[in-house]
Design goal:
Chains A, B: InterPro entries: Cyt_c-like_dom (IPR009056), Cyt_c-like_dom_sf (IPR036909), Cytochrome_c_Peroxidase/MauG (IPR051395), Di-haem_cyt_c_peroxidsae (IPR004852), MauG/Cytc_peroxidase (IPR026259). Helix content of chain A is about 30%, strand content about 5%. By secondary structure, the first copy, chain A, is mostly helical. The longest helix of chain A is centred in the last third of the chain and has 13 residues. At the A-B interface, loops of A face loops of B.
């Protein structure tokens, strides 16, 4: 299993503690200091405040709800994540839009898919997504196994069907064997559900521990620069942490885009009413899941619309729209500096060798 | 440097012997038996014949003409190979069409590029391409550094320009540093030429040694099955080895498609006259570089047109068009079995972490 090399333990599948809160999965590492501990020696008042609001990201792998993660599932899921044959055209893989070498995103305003169509929203990062309360900007998928089925079938993304995916996988004996290994007690291991389960298992490994901010939360006072500490203080005092908190510094609940003032239509397109499409509740108009801010320095452009390319500008927009605050350039600089301290160790992935197609494999379709 | 893990020495950059023949680069490993040696103990008459025609692929890295390969160049080249920001849209990387998890190809008839346009010819494998006499089906690029510049600029592929690529790379300080490391004695290390040099250096690592056939050539008589040996004998006796020989089992010279009988227009589209477009010589009409057959079992669909999806059918077409022979089903089975013995150790690549864009990075362009 090569999903990770070198940087962190992959034997941590055992012995994990999991606190499943009302807001979703919240994984707590078995080894490091829980957030409830008093600040360690060398801590300060700011560290104490931060530890009430945030939790360090565990170095161990999170446990996934209703999906026992095994090495075999991770290995299969990694192949599937990178395999463009899950798309009808044979061009797009999960990694196309959630590029593991680019912070788990594609760096596009909105992704481009089948037939050069543009998708409706910016692709969220897959990194640490397992720790979000739900998936997609509007939370319409309760977890990653539900999410994984969406883009495969979406006409503007991979444009495939469960039947086609099954035909592809069943045409490749080596894939059949991998599914049998990953789902050993199942009569029909090659199934669309299991495609999603394996992808979820792999994606659960894509966490980014040991960011400077994690080290700070764990008691290392000098893990943040003075500017970053000033930014953290502003992040708390101005109210950013009202939505962006917890282990994922966001990702755990839904909020209106424009709590105080709606941003302009160029940033908040009126046609996309967010979670309203899921709940059909008027209160959910223009409501979106607050994104995780982990690795946010890597994941431009920003917002569900992908319209803002500069993290400093994104901070300014959030200040005015969510907090009713016109942040000064210095404040923006400090908050942005703090946000860069949320960049963690990126997953190191050994690029998978995918089994070859056979003459029975359905050919790519471009129409 | 993580370009390879585990399977083979990467310290072999030193001490290589290189025999640059008139046909191009022909790398010979310093350690293993040169082809001129008598068959090893356990060899047979067939092995002796094979060793006159073919050479085992060295486990060591080949030396590249006019490009001293260093670890720094390989590391930079790997990033560039996987970076979709070399394309105008930010969607296509070298790996999109030369997927290292899929035998170095994309599994499409012809590649799809910018604006969902289809390219004119099937994407050849990047694996062992460094050992070809020249690049592209018509040999119009003399080496991989020349080849690499083509798809980046081709309107139907990545649709970028040298200026745009320079603007992207210069907007990313971490890339500037990588270029300075890789080209330490140059005043302007970030250049389009050096993009190509770095990609070539990485691609030179993408060889696939230790195929069963290589082991056989090195004296291990039981590395091939009896059926594969029968296929090898047919491959020689029927004349396949007339074009497909040497270290790359092809790739070193140009031949007409249809030496004896032109295949139908569905396989040999009349509009693509091959090398004629390069040399403007009537003799070069419908002439193409014989492709390497290494890893051919992984690289369907076949021929420059990509019209044949079944390796058995490709063997039959070659028999009739190139040799004037109607091969029996049994003969086709045997030759195909031999061809599967050309699948070598695939390169194991640690997926690169590419440096993040900045607000100065040119935004993707879709038109």
């Amino acid at each position: 299993m090569h999903a990770h090399t070198g940087h962190r333990p992959t034997t941590g599948l055992k012995g994990l503690l999991v606190a499943a809160t009302a807001l979703g999965i919240l994984a707590v590492s078995a080894g490091s200091a829980p957030a409830a501990d008093p600040p360690a020696a060398g801590g300060d008042a700011l560290m104490g405040r931060a530890r009430e609001l945030f939790k360090p990201l565990p170095a161990t792998l999170p446990v996934v709800r209703n999906n026992a993660v095994t090495r075999e599932k991770i290995e299969l899921g990694k192949m599937l994540f990178f395999d463009p044959r899950l798309s009808a055209s044979g061009i797009f893989s999960c990694n196309s839009c959630h590029n593991l070498g680019l912070g788990g995103v594609d760096g596009l305003e909105t992704s481009v898919g089948h037939g050069w169509q543009k998708g409706p929203r910016n692709a969220p990062t897959v990194l640490n997504a397992v720790l979000n309360v739900a998936q997609f900007w509007d939370g319409r998928a309760e977890d990653l196994k539900a999410q994984a089925k969406g883009p495969i079938q979406a006409g503007v993304e991979m444009n495939s069907t469960p039947d086609r995916v099954m035909a592809v996988l069943n045409s490749i004996p080596a894939y059949q064997a991998k599914f049998a290994d990953a789902f050993p007690n199942e009569k029909n291991p090659v199934s669309f559900d299991n495609v999603a389960m394996a992808i979820e298992a792999f994606e659960a490994t894509l966490t980014t521990p040991a960011a400077p901010f994690d080290q700070y939360l764990e008691g290392k006072a000098d893990a943040l620069t003075d500017t970053q500490k000033a930014g953290l203080e502003l992040f708390i005092d101005k109210g950013c942490s009202g939505c962006h908190n917890g282990v994922n510094v966001g990702g755990h609940d839904y909020f209106p885009f424009g709590v105080v003032t709606k941003p302009g239509a160029e940033i908040l397109p009126p046609g996309d009413k967010g979670r309203f499409a899921v709940t059909k509740t008027a209160d959910d108009e223009y409501v979106f899941r607050a994104p995780t801010l982990r690795n946010v320095a890597l994941t431009a452009p920003y917002f569900h619309s992908g319209k803002v390319w500069d993290l400093r500008q994104a901070v300014a927009v959030m200040g005015s729209s969510q907090l009713g605050a016109t942040l000064s350039d210095q404040e923006i600089d400090k908050i942005t500096a703090f946000l860069t301290a949320l960049t963690g160790q990126q997953p190191r992935v050994d690029y998978p060798l995918m089994p070859a197609s056979t003459p029975a494999t359905p050919q790519p379709v471009f129409k």
